[in-house]
## 1
Amino acid sequence: MAEPKILSTEEISKHNTAKDLWIVVDGQVWDLTNFAPEHPGGIGIILQHAGHDASQPYNEVHSPSLLPKTLTTSKFIGTLDTSTVSSAWAKPPPQQNPKVQLKNEKPPLDTLISTHDFEAVAERTLAPKTWAFYSSAATDLVTHKANSSFFDRIWFRPRVLRDVRRRDTRARILGREVEMPVFVSPAALARLVHPEGEKAIARACWGKGIVQCVSTNASFSIDEITSGLPSPSTSSPPLFFQLYVNKHRPHSERLLRTVWDSGIRTIFLTVDSPIAGKREADERVRMEEDQAAPMGQGKPVNDKKGGGLGRITGSFIDEGLEWGDLEWLRSVWRGKVVVKGVMGAEDARRALEWGVDGIVLSNHGGRNLDTSPPAILILLDIQRNAPQVFDKLEVYVDGGIRRGTDILKAICLGATAVSVGRTFLYALNYGQDGVEWLIDLLKDELSVAMALVGITDLGQAHPGLVNTGDLDHLVPVGESGHPYARWRRGGKSGGAKL
C-alpha cells in the first residue's frame, strides 16, 4: 500500500468550498465534498471548517471510527504536515460558536465528597448547552425536585447495639452479583461531557463491579463501548441496553441483533417517552447541528420551538407503542426484558401479566410529564396496591437518588436496586476517574448508613426500618380512578383508557 501523502496547510486551505471541501480530523485529511450535502447535521457545520482542522468539534460528538466507516478509502487524501501549522491556520473560524469560557477551573477530584459537589462543578464548567441538556427537566420542575425531596420525607428507625463491624453492600440484579444495588441509568450523548463518553463509564462500572445501562442514544455504538471491556463472564457485572423503539421497526430489529451479538442479554424498554416533555432550559440554548447518536435516528436541527436536544433527537421514537407490542419484542429478542417508566400500580400489574423480568419505576428524571409521581412514591403505591409484583418481578427505582441513605431507603421498601443518571454524567466531567470516585462515594455512604441503621447485609433491610408516615396520605388506595370526582365522558374516543 502506498504511503499516504503529506499535505501542507497551504494545500489543504485551497479546498475550502462546498464544491471542493477538505477537512482535517486528528491529523488525517478527508475529502467531504460529496458527503457534506448528505450530512445529518447539515452542511453548515462542515463548511465552517472547510480547509482547516475540525478535530475538536468533530471529537466532541463523534466516534473516532465514524469517518473511516462512513467514507470510502478514496476519500482519505493524506496526513497533515504538522510542521506547516501556524497559529493563524489553527485559529477557529470566525463563524464558529465561541469556546466555552470556564468560570472556574475544576477542583481536584479528591476534594469532591458528595454528589452535590459533582453537580456544582458541572454547572460551573460544562458547556452551556451540555449543562442545559442534562440538568433540565419538564416545565416547572415540580416532579424533578420531588424525586429527591420525597426521599427526605422518609425517616429511618435505627436499631442499636448491633455488631456492625463487617458490612456487605453486595446484591444481585437479574441473577448476577454486583458490588452494590446501584446501576448507571441510560443517558444520551455522554460524549458531550467527556471525549470518552459511555466508554469511560463502562470501564469504570466494570472495574468497580456495578451495572451500566447503555442508551439507544449513546455517543458510541454498542460495539465501540464493549470493545474496551474484558470478555464477559458469569462473575463480571453485566451490561444492559436501553431501547427506544423506532417508528421503523426493522431498524430496531437490526439494532437488537447487534446488541445481542455484543454479548448483552438484557434490554430495558423505555415506555414513558412516546414524546419528549417540554424542557425549557434545554430549548432556550441552541444546539450545534452536528450532535447525533450512531444508534438512534433523530436528526438534530434547531426549529421554531428551540434547540431541545431531547425532543429533537428523540423524534424517531414510536409514539404508537403499546402493551401488545411486547409480543413483537419477544419475537425479535431472546433475552430478558425490563420495562422502564412504570408510574403506578396498575401498569406494574400489567407488566407482571405480560411476563417481563423487571420494571423500573421512573418518571424519566422529571423530564417528561411534570407533576407525575416521584419514583419513591410509586414504590409505595405498588406496595399498597399491587404487592404481588414484588414476588415475581425485580423492581428498580430511578429518580432522586443522591445519597447512600436514599439507596438504603429504597431497598428497605422492596426495591431490588436503584439507578442513578445525571450524577454519573456530572462525574464523567472528570473522565473514568470521576465515575469511579462517585461509585466509591456512594458505596461508602451506603455502608455507613447500613451500620448506623443496624444491619450488616442488605438482606436484613426491611420496611420496619423506615417511617413513611409523611408520605402515606399521598399513596393511592385501591383500583384506578379518583376517590370522589365524577368521570364526565368526552373527547372523540368517548372515554379514557384505564
Note: The chain has 21 helices and 17 strands.
## 2
Amino acid sequence: MTTPSKGDENDTGSAAPAPPKSWAELLAVPVEPGGTTFDTLKARIRHHYELASEYYYSLWGEHIHHGYFLSASDTKERAQIQLISLLLQRSQLEKGSTVLDVGCGIGGTSRHLALNHGCHVTGITISGKQVEMATNLTKTAAASSSTGETVTAGGAAIKLGDGSARFLELDAETMGDFFADHGGFDCVWISEAMSHLPDKALFFRNAFKLLKKGGKLVIADWFRAEDLTEKQVGDDIKPIEDGMLLPPLCTQPEYVSFAREAGFGVLSAPLDISKDVAKTWEISWSLVQSPSLWAFAVTQGRDGVAFLQAFRAMRRGYANGTFRYAVMVFKKT
C-alpha cells in the first residue's frame, strides 16, 4: 500500500481549515474528547458501523476480529479462523448447538459455526447495514452449500450445510427482553463486542437469562492490564477507548467477577493470548495506510481521525503490555 502524497505545504484552502495532507500529519491531529454519555456513545458506534463496515470488509474480509497467529506463515485469514477454533476448543461447544452471536458484525463467525459446526445461529448487531451485508454474504455462501430458508420467529434463517444463520438489528442491552420467549440458547458467543457495551454486568445477567441450563458463554475480548499507572492509562489506553468508541476497558478478573455475580461458573479460565494476536495490528497498520481509507477518515471528522490514530495506540499498547487480549468461557450450572 502507498501513503497519501504530501501536497503543497502552503495550500490551506479558503472556506475551512484544510484536512491533513499526509499520513503522519493525520496521526498528529489533536482530537477533542467525543460524547461521553452512554446514549451518545451508542449512537456513535451505530453511525461508525453504518459507514465503515464496507471498509472493514474490503480490508479484513468477512471476519472482523483479531487473528490468532500460531506460525510465521499464517495469513490473516487463517489466523482469524484459528481464533474461532480456539474458542470452540476451549468451550467444547457441541455440534448442532443453538447460538446467539452478539455483535455479529457481517456474520463471518455465524456462517462458520453454521457451515462447519452445524450450529443454528442468530446474529445480532446494532447496525442495520451489517445485517444487510451479513444476510447477503450468507445467501451467497448458501449458494455453494445446502440452500433454502427456514422461517423462524423474527426472521428467516438461511440454511448452511447442517446449520443455519439469521441476522437481526438489535441493541445487545435489550436482548434479555427480546428473546424472553425464545426457549433458551445453548451458547451465547461474543467476540470483541462486549468491550463496546457500557453496562457489562447487565450483559452477563441477560446472557445467563437466555441460556439453557448447561449453556455456555464464550468470550473473546480486549482488556487493559491490571495495576496500570495514570500515565500508562493516558498514554496507551485512553487513545484506544476514544478511537475505538469504547467505554472504560475492564481487566480480565473483572469479567470473571461479573460472570460469577450473574450466576455463572468458570468453565475455562481467562487465557491471555496477547502475544499471539498482536500481529493483527501490524497487518492493520499497513492496510489502513490505503489513501482511500485515509480520505474516508478525514471526511468523518474527529471520530474518523481518532479511529485511525487508535491503530497506532493498539500497537503501542500490545508492545508495552498495557493492552491485553484474552478468551474465556463460562457455564450456566
Note: The radius of gyration is 20 Å.
## 3
Amino acid sequence: MHATAVQRKDAPAACKHYTSLQQVPYDIQKYYHQRYDLFSKYDDGILMTDTAWYGVTPEPVANQVAQHISAGAPASKAVLIDCFAGVGGNTIAFARSGRWKRVYAIEKDENVIRCGKHNAKLYSVEHKISWFHGDCFDIIKNELSPLGQYSVIFASPPWGGPGYRTDAVFNLTTMQPYSLQQLLGPLRQLTEDIVLFLPRTSDLRQLAKEIEDSKRVKAIHYCMEGASKAMCVFFGLSLSL
C-alpha cells in the first residue's frame, strides 16, 4: 500500500506534495531523490503535478541561466517572458534575479500554473510575476506584442518526454510538440533576443542554420556534478563568458 501525498485544500488534486518515497509513482521516483536540487524549499510545501517532475530545471541551473540572461540582455530590456513556465523553476529564478521590472510566465496546463503560482509564493516573488494561462504563441501575439522592444524571451519547450536521453544527437526539426522552426518563427515576431533551453545533445548544425545575417549565437552547457543537464542557446544577447 502506498502512502498518500500531502494535499492542500486550496489546490487541485493533481497538485501534489510528496513527503516520502512510498507516496511517489514508480516512474518519477528517481526525480524525487533529486527534489532538493529541483527546489531548495521543497520541504516548505512545493507543489508539482506528476508530469511536471520530468521538466523542472534544477534550481542551481535555473539560477545560473537567470544570471547569464541578466548579464547579456541589453539595458533597454526590462521584461522577461517565460513561454513554458511549468511549475515555476526558471520563472522563480528570473524573478529572484532582481533584473526585470516584470516577469511574464505563460503555461497552458491549468493545474501546472496553479502549482507555479503557489511555488512563487514560497520564494516570496509572487508580486514580481504575471501569469498567463493559455498557448504561449497566442498570448505573445495577442496580449504581449506591445512589449516586444522591451522583452527577452526564454523558452524551455517540451522535449517529447524523457526518451530524448537515448539520442546521441537530438533532432530539433522533429522535436515534439514544437520543432525548432515552429518555435523561432513566432518568437522572432516579437524580439530577436531569445534564449532556448534545449537537450544537451541538440544538433548544433540545425541550430547554425537558424542564425540570421551572420550574427553570432552562443550555446552553453549547464552542468551539475560534472554532467551536462541541458544546453542554452542565446540569440541576440551579448555574453562575454
Note: The chain has a mean pLDDT of 92.
## 4
Amino acid sequence: MATQNTTFKLNTGNEIPAVGFGTWQDKDAQEDAVTEALKAGYKHIDTARMFAFRLQHPSPSSRYGTEPACGAAIRKSGVPRSSLFITTKLWNNSHHPSDVEPALDASLKDLGTDYVDLYLMHWPVAFGRGGAMIPKDSNGKTINGDTDYVDTWKAMEGVYKKGKAKAIGISNFSRKETERLIKETDVVPAAHQIEVHPYLQQLDACEWFRGKGIHVQQYSPFGNQNEIYSKGQNMGKLIDDPTLVEIGKKHSKNGAQVALAWGIAQGHSVLPKSKTPSRIRDNLAGDFRLDEEDLEKLRKVDKKMRFNDPSANFGFQFYVGEDGKVE
C-alpha cells in the first residue's frame, strides 16, 4: 500500500523512519511478524530487553524480550543492516553503571548486530541488580535498586561515545525528570518514547520535548486497542472513534491509519504492533497527509486518558505532573 516514507532528523543528525514496527508482547509470534514487516517495507524495528510481559501484572513466567526473534527475522530477510533503524532498551535491573554496557552487549548479541541505532532507558527507575527481571521480596513486592537514573544515563553516554549506540534516549520520563537529566549530564536524549495517541495527545509535553531537541516516539498509538490495558476495556476503542472513522472515510483509510497519520503530523514517529500480515501492511500505509481541518477535529477528541501506568507494581510514581496521571 502507498506510504510517504516520512523520516525525521534526530539531534544526532541521523534520520529515523516515521513508522516503526513495534514488537511488544506475543514473543513467540514476533519472528514471523517482523519477517512480514520487513517484507512489507518497514525499515524501523522497535524491540527491548524486556518486552513480553504484563506491566501491571507480570507473571512469574515473564521472560526476556523480543530481541532474539527480531534478530532472527532480520538475518533471514536479507535486508542490509545499514538500511534498518533498530531500537532496543535498557531494562531496569541493569541500571547500575557497571551493568549498562554488558546489558547492551547482550542485546547486540541477540540482535546479531554490532550497534543499535537508538538505545533507550526503558524506565526512570532501577530494580535490584541480578538475573531476575522483576525481583520480588517475600511479600511479592518489587525490589527497587538504589541507582540514580542520572548515573545510568552517564553510563549510556559511554556506549554512545563508543559507537555501540548511534543515539541514546529515554522512555516513560516526566518533563521534570528529563529536565534534571539534561542539566546534570552531557548528552541530550535524542528521543523519548512515551504513550501518545489521540486520546492522550500530551500537546504541551510534546512541545516541551521538541523544544529541547528531543524527538517523540509514540508507543501504543492505538490507545486502548491493546487488551493488556484494563483501564480501556469498558469503553469504545480509539480506532473506532467516530471522528477517526469519519476522517478515514474521507481519505479511504481506516481509523487505525488515521491515528498513525495524526502522530506523524505532530512530528512524531509511531510504533504500531500487529502479528496479522494484512494489518502490518495497513499500518505502514498510515503514513499519509491529513489536512488542517482533519487535525482540528482530532484535537477535540483528546480525553487526557492514560492507559499505561505500572506505578503501583514498580514501586515508583511515573508521569507525575503529566496529562492522564491519576494521583
Note: The longest strand covers residues 85-90.
